[in-house]
Every structure is written in C-alpha cells, then in structure tokens.
Amino acid sequence: MTLEELAASLGFSSFPPLFAVALAVALVVGLIILVPILLRVIEIANYAYSNSRIQVMSSRIIPEEKLKEMIEASSLAEVVAALETTEYSAYLREMMEERSEAIERALNRHTADSYREVVMMVPLNLKKILTVLLRKWDVYNIKLILRGVYAGRSPDDVRADLVPVGELNPSKIGELAEARSLEEVISNLDGTPYSRLAESLQLFDQTRNLTVFEARLDKILYEDAWKDATSQPLDENLLSLKNYLATNIDVVNLKFVFRAKKDGLAAGSIESYLVSGGGLAESLIKGILEVDSVDNVVAALEGTKYYQPVLGAVPEYESTGSILPIELALDGHLVRVGKNISITQPFGIGPAIGYLSMKEMEIRNVRTLARGIESGLSPDEIRSLIMKVGS
To answer: What is the dihedral angle through the alpha carbons of 25, 31, 32, 34, rounded to the nearest 10 degrees?
Structure first.
C-alpha cells in the first residue's frame, strides 16, 4: 500500500494532510521529551550563578595550614595580624582592643553577613529551605541571652555578642536581651516557637542548671525543622536538607547521651531530652540509653556512620577523662557530611549547605584559638580543642 492509499483509507484526500498530522505528532512527542530537559537546564542555570559565587566564598575559608600557624601565635596581636589577610579584615578594624571577646564579635558580625549574602543570592525556591538553617542562630542567641542574664551581664554586653541573623524579629531579640531574669526572658518568648521553653522552668528551679533550657531549645529547633523537611514531597534539595538535618539530630542526641553517661545519669532522666527524628534507628537509641558507660555507647555505635569518628577519639578521651574529643569528632563528622552534600548535589542547595557548615567550623576554631591564647594555653592544648573535618 502506497502512502497515498494509506492516506485515503484514513479519510485524507491526499498525502500532505497525513504528513502534517505526522509532523504534529512528532512535535508533540518532541516537546514531551524536551520540555523536562529544558526546564532542568533552566533550573541549573538559575543555580549556576549563585553557586559559583558560593564556591568563591568557600575558597576563602581559612586553610588548615594558616590555622596551624595561628595556633602557634604567642599573642592575640599575632592572631589579629594573621586575620588581616583574610576576609575578616574589615571587621577587625572596628575593634577597640585586642581581646578574645572583641575578636569573637568581629567573627559574629562576619557570620551574620555571610548568611545574609547566601540567602540573598540563592534562587527563590531555596530561600525557604535555608530559613531552617537560619533558626540555629535564633537558638544560639537565646542561649547566649540566658547565659548572660544568669551571669548578671548588662544588656549592652549581651547585645554585643549576638549574631543578628535568624527568623526572629530583631526587635524581639532586643527585647529578650533587655530582660533581667530568666523568667522574663522566657515570658518574652510568648508567640514564638520557643515559648515551649516555659515547660522546663520547674526542672530548672530544681537543678539550677542551664542545660535544662539549652537541651529543650535544641529539641524545639530540630524537631520543628525535621517536621518541616519531612512533611512535604521530597525533591533533590529537600532530600539533601533532610540528610543534613538527620545528621544534626543524631550528633545532638549522641553528644547529650555521651555527656549523660559520663555523669552517670540513668536512662529515664535522659530520654525526654532527646530529639525525635534523625537517621539512627529508634531501637538503637533505646539500646544506647540502657548502657552504663561511655565505652559501651561507643561499642553500640558499631555498624553506624558514627562509629569510626567516635572510635578515633576514644584514646584521647581515655587519657584525659574529658568527653570533648568525642564531641569534636562528632561535630567534625557533621561538617564532613555538609561538605559531601556540596559535592554530590552541586546544582541546588548543596554548595550553600557545604559552605555554611564549613564557615561555622571556621568561626568556632578561630574563637577557640583566640580564647586559648588569651588564657595562656600551649599550642598542643589548643590543638586538642580544634574541630577537624571528620573522615
């Protein structure tokens, strides 16, 4: 049968109409195939500009070699001189004196500007995801205010140490900083997600330990973030955020459990502080709660991604009796996870997560070495306090 005969059998008077139909079908099929590809190309193009800028920011993270030189500094003046060649230079010029507190305030101002810059440059659909990470600074600021009020610091001193980023309105943070009692701070949290801190007031009255509030704040922060990340359809960006949050939750829980076991606390007094969610199985967590020592907690982690980092810190824990080496190993593993996400998810939220996690490590390390040098610690003592990226 010729094409003309086929056209006639289908009701077409000639071949051209059949050709037109075939062409139309081919166009429709082509569009069905190409549109998703084009949309993906456009999406990648939207990320390309912001992520290239974030990569430039990441390249300015203080390298390990320079950090080693700073640890060997004999005075804060040498630390400041070393930082003058970094992106902290402009912030250090505002310092009135060379004290670790002044350096920390310069670091905090830079951190706030870095977060704002990242949030402003990412595509609109990623801004909401990044707000989850910004909440960490709300909790940081509330903890700092609680400690300041408890220690009797003046509102001006407290305000100077705050990091002005996060979801809470700046006026609310200012109101909290003006409080003169812990009860007033918590009362001023009404209308925010952190009003639930009031549930810990009675226990604080019994223990007079700020850990009661700080653990509750971590629980509020991460359980709300976990709910947000898991209550909507997961695309690649949300999946990356969920993986990062899961590691955050696991690290917070494990650090709390290690401290509790070091202090000999019973399982019943620990469980209510643990954050729900995360990557570790609930059965594993319950099993860990029942063990009676730090060594047994380490053994219970065998087969998980936390075992090797923690195991590497055990010798230092055994020689010092301090849980800090294990906490540093867990924090370093968290930074490694963020860095890996930036590599495996280069188009989307990955570079932002990687950069912000590395930036937080950098800030923490510079703060630690400044305090150590000011306190007269030896380079070896300071090195033992520095967080390293976990393997």
So the answer is: 140
Length of the chain: 391
Based on the domain organization, do 32 and 72 belong to the same domain? no
Residues 135 and 266 in one domain: yes
Is residue 260 in some structural domain? Answer: yes
**pLDDT per residue as tens digits for the range 300-353:** 999 999 999 999 999 999 999 999 999 999 999 999 999 999 998 888 889 999
Whole-Å CA distances, 33 to 19, 28, 235, 254: 21, 9, 20, 47
Cα–Cα distance for residue pair 69/77, rounded to 1 Å:
13
Judgement on whether residues 52 and 72 belong to the same structural domain of the protein: no
Token duo for residue 73: 């500094």
Residues 174/186, Cβ–Cβ less than 8 Å: no
Distance CA(335)–CA(332), nearest Å, equals 5
In a domain, 389, yes or no: no
pLDDT at 120: 85
pLDDT band at 381 (very low <50, low <70, confident <90, very high): very high
